[in-house]
Amino acid sequence: MKKKVLVTGASGYLGGRLCYSLLKQGHSVRAFVRPTSDLSSLPPPSNGGALDLAYGDVTDYRSLLDACSGCQVIFHAAALVEPWLPDPSRFVSVNVGGLKNVLQAYKETGTIEKIIYTSSFFALGSTDGHVADESQIHPAKSFCTEYEKSKAIADKIALEAASEGVPIVPVYPGVIYGPGKVTVGNVLARLIIERFNGRLPGYIGYGSDKFSFSHVDDVVDGHIAAMNKGRLGERYLLTGENASFMHVFDIAAIITETKKPSFGIPLLVIEAYGWLSVLFSRITGKLPLISPPTVYVLGHQWAYSCEKAKVELDYNPRSLKEGLAEVLPWLKSLGLIKY
Ligand SMILES: NC(=O)c1ccc[n+]([C@@H]2O[C@H](COP(=O)([O-])OP(=O)(O)OC[C@H]3O[C@@H](n4cnc5c(N)ncnc54)[C@H](OP(=O)(O)O)[C@@H]3O)[C@@H](O)[C@H]2O)c1
Question: What are 4-40's pLDDT values in tens digits?
């Protein structure tokens, strides 16, 4: 059945692709964007058409409530995804406060049938020595980043809301990669750009880290499947192939017929570079690509199983090889890398 949906974070990497897909499937989309948002990831809104824009901020309850008017579904994808910000309190106000406002708006609106909340693998915590599934709850003893902490707190709130009967389905993507806006959320594209422009000469660490890599279009399909058939209150990992960044660079070298890196840059060196980048960022105001918290993340494993989503949502993540075979020519076509 066609729905009227509100998408927060619509101007972002994931949100933009989600809007396109929802529109393609005949849903009517209200994109919640900030007055300052770059709207290049969205189709132009059409008069009386299937896409309309609502301006606001997830921390501004009134604007969110107004945007919910007449909607049946909320996709809540808005978040600050940076691993480091000069003012860390913003992670809580946006990532936790934003979800609280969505839950409050659900209660006040009365028309919302389902909330699909974009959480993150970070909300479950690291998985050193094992592969985790949806039963893992973040132990909340330590966090590599303030972002991780905010997503873990928000996850707890989402699960509490579910237990109180709020029709929410939290979904947990892995590291999202693939074509789309090259925002801070598109971390793999940014690292490949660094690598192919000679600014990242070696592997990051020694390949002992493992992450779960999710292609953006698989994640979008998983979100829409969660709307159509996700069970209320159930968590779904929308993860993909578990692999190290070393493996990613190796596959990239094979696909592009270029040389693999011949050495690993020790994490300590990357951390020192991260501290310098943070210092530089405090002077210039430009956010760093690598910061010490990123390195703390790289010191752990983040490997997950998406079996539940495969069974219940027909989630069908592609392999890294397939995904990268698309990403590399795409970055090349944009002139962002050469090979
Ligand atoms: N990227 C990943 O690897 C990854 C992995 C797991 C989970 N996730 C989750 O996926 C979601 C989307 O991430 P993404 O990668 O698409 O990030 P992104 O490209 O940085 O997009 C973030 C979006 O959130 C919006 N936003 C930020 N603060 C806001 C505020 N105060 N009010 C309203 N909107 C606000 C941004 O708006 P502006 O355009 O105005 O900045 C943007 O549209 C997030 O919830 C993130 O936690 C991402």
Answer: 999 999 999 999 999 999 999 999 999 999 999 999 9
Ligand 1, CB within 6 Å, residue ranges: 8-9, 11-15, 34, 36-38, 57-59, 77-81, 94, 118, 120, 173, 175-176, 183-185, 187
Cα-trace Rg, the chain: 19
| pLDDT tens by residue, 293-312 | 988 999 999 999 999 999 99
CB atoms within 10 A of CB 194: 16
Nearest in space to 13 (alpha carbons), one of 175, 183, 147: 183
Spatial distance between the Cα atoms of 8 and 220, rounded to a whole number of angstroms: 14
Quote the tokens at residue 70.
């007449």
CA angle at residue 322 from 320 to 327, to 5 degrees?
Answer: 85
Mutate to test the pocket of ligand 1, among 6, 7, 8, 13 (most ligand atoms within 8 A of CB): 13
8 Å CB contact between 289 and 190: yes
With cut-offs at 50, 70 and 90, classify the pLDDT of residue 48.
low
Using the mean position of ligand 1's atoms as its centre, give its distance from the Cα of residue 171 in Å. 14
Q: Where are the domains of the chain?
A: 4-181+215-240+303-318
Terminal Cα-to-Cα distance of the chain (whole angstroms):
45
Structure tokens at 293: 């918290």
**For the whole model, what pTM was predicted?**
0.97
Q: Which CATH superfamily is domain 4-181+215-240+303-318 in?
A: NAD(P)-binding Rossmann-like Domain (3.40.50.720)
Mutation test residue for ligand 1: of 30, 34, 302, the one with most atoms within 8 Å of CB: 34
